[in-house]
Structures are given as C-alpha cells and as structure tokens.
C-alpha cells in the first residue's frame, strides 16, 4: 500500500515563496480540480504532493507547472523510481529498442515519453528527439552514454556515477582504472596520454626543451653558455697596449 502511495507522490522545489493555497491552485489548473490528496511543506521552498491517481502524478512529473513567473519541475520521491533522460536520440528509433537496452539496468515503469519543445518556444509542440524513461534501478547507475539501435545518445539521471569501459564497474572511469593497460609501456594503471615511462616520454621532454630554447632565442633572452673558463677569461693586454693611452699616445706611466 505504501508503494502505491509513493507512486502517486511528487516532490518539488520553488525558487520563490508561495502559499500552499497558491500551489494547490496552480497544480489543479495543470491537472484537474480536486486531484490532490496531500500537499505538504517539507521545508522552506520544498514540497510534497500526493494525487488520487498515479497517472496524475506522472503527468505532473512530465509537464511540471507554472507558479507566478517560474516553471516548477516535479520529481518522484527518492527511492521509488528514477527519471532517466535520453538526450539527442534520433526520433525514428522505436521504444522497444530503447527498452531492450535499458531493462538491464532496472524495471521500466510506464511508457517512454517523447519530449516536446515547451510552451513559449518557437517550435512548441514539435518533438525534440529527447526521451524520458522512468526506471526502478537495480544497478548503481546508468553509463553517461549508451548505444541504442546503432546510435549513441547522452544519458542523464540524478545520482549518476562514472562508468569504466575497461572493467565494467561504476565509481571510476577508464583513465583511473587499475586494469587499464598503457599501449606505450604495456603497464597497467594508466592510459598512454599519462605515461611517464614509455619511449615517447623522453622524446617529449626533449621536444619541450628545444621548444623553450627556440622561444627564448626569439624573445632575445641570452642562451646559456658552456662552462669553459678559457672562453670566459679575458686575455691580459700586452706591453705595447699597456703603454698606449686611449688616444694612441705613449703612456708616460
């Protein structure tokens, strides 16, 4: 019974102060009059609403509602199901293709929603290719991108965790995976871009050194000289030079 009530419940936050009466009126404008069973203020600017029918809560999650000049997005309560957005998925891809990929991450609740441009947009009413799927997750997360019917799309949901394509575990990515093998040095624990022991590392350091020298030369900075005392030591003047003054006359001293 508690699960049924949770399925009929939404939570939402407002960006400005509003009375419960105002919120009730705006929600009923969007859904229908008398649709609410509970309207509760959880803390300042955060509320919970329970509806008579599950379809009513699902409609509000999909559409949200307007409060004064602010649009309010609604979400399912924590622990029931997760709203998963599929971004940039080509519109012609069928729902059954989406279901076949997502069902490995949890139980899909309800139909897949094809999102449209919102009211006020120049293209309002047209589909934008994005989808909204409600899932009760049985995995820690869903990867940031998925390939569905041969096409890649971006995946977004709350509490999303990094996914490693090397070890197929959540919580880190391939770059930080201890099982990743560097193709330069064949050691585990890093990718080639971060390699500090491969044969290209010394070459890269030499290239950086040569580049710094070339830059210093262009900017007129003195180049470091070899430590050769014979080059740095000035030759003493000979006796003839010592007896000549600056005008070429004999130095009486």
Question: What keywords describe this structure?
Answer:
Alpha-Beta Plaits; six-stranded antiparallel β-sheet; 25% helix; 7 helices; alpha+beta
**Name of the CATH architecture of the largest domain:** 2-Layer Sandwich
Number of beta-strand segments:
12
Shape descriptor:
elongated
Helices and strands, in N-to-C order? HEHEEHEEEEHEEEEEHHH
- Find the CATH topology of the largest domain: Alpha-Beta Plaits
Given the structure, what is the number of helices?
A: 7
At the first level of CATH, the class of the largest domain is Alpha Beta
Query: How much helical structure, as a percent, in the residues?
Result: 10-25%
Number of self-contained structural domains:
3
Cα distance spanning the termini: 119 Å
Care to describe what's here?
Residues 193-219 have a biased composition (Basic and acidic residues). With 253 residues, the chain is α+β, with helices and mostly antiparallel strands. The protein has three domains: 5-75, RRM (RNA recognition motif) domain (Alpha-Beta Plaits), CATH 3.30.70; 82-160, RRM (RNA recognition motif) domain (Alpha-Beta Plaits, 2-Layer Sandwich), CATH 3.30.70.330; 162-196, no CATH class. Helix content is 25%, strand content 24%. The strands form three sheets. Strands 7, 8, 9, 10, 11 and 12 form a six-stranded antiparallel sheet that branches. It has a four-stranded antiparallel sheet with strand order 2-3-1-6. It has a two-stranded antiparallel sheet with strand order 4-5.
């Amino acid at each position: 019974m508690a699960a049924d009530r949770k399925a009929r419940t939404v939570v939402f936050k407002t960006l400005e102060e509003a009375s419960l009466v105002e919120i009730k009126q705006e929600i009923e404008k969007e859904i229908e009059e008398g649709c609410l069973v509970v309207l509760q203020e959880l803390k300042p600017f955060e509320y919970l609403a329970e509806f008579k029918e599950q379809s009513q809560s699902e409609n509000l999650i999909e559409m949200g509602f307007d409060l004064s000049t602010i649009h309010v997005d609604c979400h399912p309560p924590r622990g029931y199901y997760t709203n998963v957005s599929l971004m940039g998925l080509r519109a012609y891809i069928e729902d059954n293709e989406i279901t076949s990929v997502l069902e490995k991450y949890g139980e899909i609740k309800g139909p897949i929603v094809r999102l449209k441009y919102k009211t006020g947009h120049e293209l309002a009413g047209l589909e934008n290719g994005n989808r909204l799927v409600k899932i009760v997750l049985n995995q820690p997360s869903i990867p940031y991108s998925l390939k569905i019917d041969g096409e890649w799309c971006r995946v977004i949901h709350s509490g999303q965790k990094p996914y490693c394509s090397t070890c197929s575990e959540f919580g880190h990515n391939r770059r930080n995976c201890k099982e990743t093998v560097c193709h330069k040095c064949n050691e585990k624990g890093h990718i080639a871009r971060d390699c500090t022991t491969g044969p290209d590392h010394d070459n890269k350091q030499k290239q950086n050194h040569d580049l710094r020298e070339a830059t210093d030369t262009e900017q007129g900075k003195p180049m470091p000289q070899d430590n050769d005392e014979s080059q740095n030591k000035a030759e003493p003047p000979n006796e003839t030079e010592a007896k000549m003054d600056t005008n070429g006359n004999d130095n009486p001293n």
